[in-house]
């Protein structure tokens, strides 16, 4: 859980005046390159964990969607410890690739959501059914509101999403997560304000941190 006041306020002011964009989402998944990059960055311990991730992908290919979502959600929630970006990276807001997060075995809410998104896409879940959702989350007895990110699965653009979260481990419909208030959502091809069904922007043009992590994932062999 992390504070994202600048991101949220900036997007809130500008979303409605942006045009739709749709960058290419062609896959270039390269396990050998991923393993090589992990070895270079994090050594044998990193390769061990990335191999577990690759084995999970192989095992889940062709499995039922519900099983895929549950196991992917559980994998990252179990294998990665939550820490804020300042503690991990010395930066207030850093979006890590799955390699970076698994190499450190630490991450924050954006990192969990990005890793689950990339993994489910590689398993064949259509990218247009997945969105990373920035929300306001009410935490604890004080019900203090903080910025947070989850991954949503949408059967159709108008469907109520299923929520994959690192805080509450069970996958639940959004209507059962009254602690979350959506602010905006995005994926590789669109960006939506609140609960809108119409994309308002090119996420790569609007979200510099998303553009940065996409570029690093391409270099590392994820996309």
Automatic annotation (TrEMBL):
Recorded superkingdom: Bacteria
Keyword rRNA-binding listed: no
Keywords: Signal
One Pfam family, short name: Peptidase_C93
Signal sequence coordinates: 1-28
PANTHER family the record matches: BLR5470 PROTEIN, PTHR39327
Record protein name field: Transglutaminase-like cysteine peptidase
């Amino acid at each position: 859980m992390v504070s994202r006041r600048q991101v949220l306020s900036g997007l809130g002011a500008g979303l409605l005046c942006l045009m739709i964009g749709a960058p290419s989402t062609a896959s270039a998944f390269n396990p050998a390159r991923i393993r090589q990059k992990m070895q270079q960055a994090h050594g044998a311990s990193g390769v061990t964990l990335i191999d577990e991730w690759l084995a999970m992908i192989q095992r889940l290919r062709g499995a039922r969607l519900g099983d895929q979502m549950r196991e992917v959600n559980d994998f990252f929630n179990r294998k990665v410890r939550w820490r804020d970006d300042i503690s991990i990276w010395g930066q207030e807001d850093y979006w890590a690739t799955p390699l970076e997060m698994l190499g450190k075995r630490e991450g924050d809410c954006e990192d969990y959501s990005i890793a689950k998104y990339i993994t489910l896409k590689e398993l064949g879940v259509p990218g247009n059914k997945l969105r990373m959702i920035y929300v306001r989350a009410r935490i604890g007895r004080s019900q203090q509101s903080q910025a947070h990110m989850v991954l949503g699965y949408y059967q159709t653009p108008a469907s109520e999403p299923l929520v994959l979260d690192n805080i509450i481990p069970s996958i639940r419909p959004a209507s059962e997560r009254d602690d979350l208030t959506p602010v905006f959502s995005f994926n590789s091809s669109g960006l939506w304000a609140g609960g809108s069904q119409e994309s308002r922007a090119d996420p790569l043009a609007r979200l510099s941190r998303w553009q940065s992590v996409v570029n690093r994932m391409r270099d590392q062999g994820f996309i």
